[in-house]
Amino acid sequence: MKEKLQKIREHAMVQIQSAENLNMLNDVRVAVLGKKGELTSVLKGMKDVAPEDRPKVGQLVNETREEIEHVLEQAKKKMEALVREEKLKAEVIDVTLPAKKNQSGHRHPNTIALEEVERIFIGMGYEVVEGPEIEYDLYNFEKLNIPEGHPAKDEQDTFYINKEIVLRTQTSPCQARVMEQGKLPIRMIAPGRVFRSDEVDATHSPSFHQIEGLVVDKNITFADLKGTLEEFAKELFGPETKTKFRPHHFPFTEPSAEVDVSCFKCGGKGCRFCKGSGWIEILGCGMVHPHVLEMCGIDPEQYTGFAFGVGLERIALLKYEIDDMRLLYENDIRFLGQF
Ligand code: DAH
User: Fold this and answer.
1) Which of 63-72, 206-215, 264-273 has the highest mean pLDDT?
2) DSSP strand E in 69-129: where?
3) Dist. CA 131 → ligand 1 center (Å)
4) How many degrees, rounded to 5, is the angle at CA 195 between CA 193 and CA 197?
5) Rounded Cα distance, 95 and 274, in Å
6) Ligand 1, atom 8: closest residue by C-alpha
7) What contacts 169, CB < 8 A, 6 or more positions away?
8) For residues 175 and 214, is the Cβ–Cβ distance under 8 A?
9) For the segment 253-304, what is each residue's pLDDT rounded down to a tens digit?
10) Structure pTM?
11) In a mutational test of the pocket of ligand 1, which residue from 224, 252, 296 has the highest number of ligand atoms less than 8 Å from its CB?
């Protein structure tokens, strides 16, 4: 019996030694100590042992069991430590590696330009309002002094939904909508998308953006218009910027003007940017036509006002020295990533 136990013990030790992983160790445990294991079967054979020898043999079996259990436990611990170490090695993090850049989006140059314009006018006490992109002919043309058959209508050919509804050609209809509400005085800008059936080229697109401005109050004069737009130009293009008002015609303002700013690239000397003239056209403006005030329910004897309209893309192109408007719409990340 003693020899048998000795053999089991030795065999178990060899098996434990050669176990390569935790599963194999467990197999050894089952084969030796398990319910049908070698040692267990020895215990089952106790009935064949002479009664006086039983305590002795029992003790021997227990000692062998304990010894094997101990060695198994040690081997298991060692193996687990090894596994842990290997795992740690495999998962090592090199903290000196450069981090992956987080590719977050950012504002479109049009949006940057718009927010800049909004900031300037909000600073002067203006409110920002919006109007519909699909507009009644009535607001887009009629109430702005552009009646049926007026030549100015041809210049702003657009997309007609039907005879009465168009995609707005300008943000100016917001003027009529705000005036009609009858809350005076008015100090507002109205940014938004406008449409014209223009061919796409470096300076034209069938869809672009404008920012409308309108002030209506008592005693508003052309001097207020000039002062306001001069301040706007200085804030937008720098304190050295000069402005020039050229007489022009818009049906809804009288008198009307186009405003040029001194070229911020060459300071007015003339360069490629301003096509040698030293000046760059930026907007249209004028004193709100008395007839327009009247059509919108405001008494032109009591109130006067001025209005202006700026092309948003034009500002973005000028500010960032972009020479083709199409770049703003192509969504090429190589271009957009520069802002
Ligand atoms: N809506 C005009 C355009 O599209 C721009 C404009 C000119 C707006 C003069 C105005 C203004 O409010 O007073 O060309």
Assistant:
1) 206-215
2) 127-128
3) 15
4) 160
5) 52
6) 309
7) 140, 156, 157, 158, 194, 195, 196
8) yes
9) 999 999 999 998 898 999 988 889 999 999 999 999 999 999 999 999 999 9
10) 0.72
11) 252
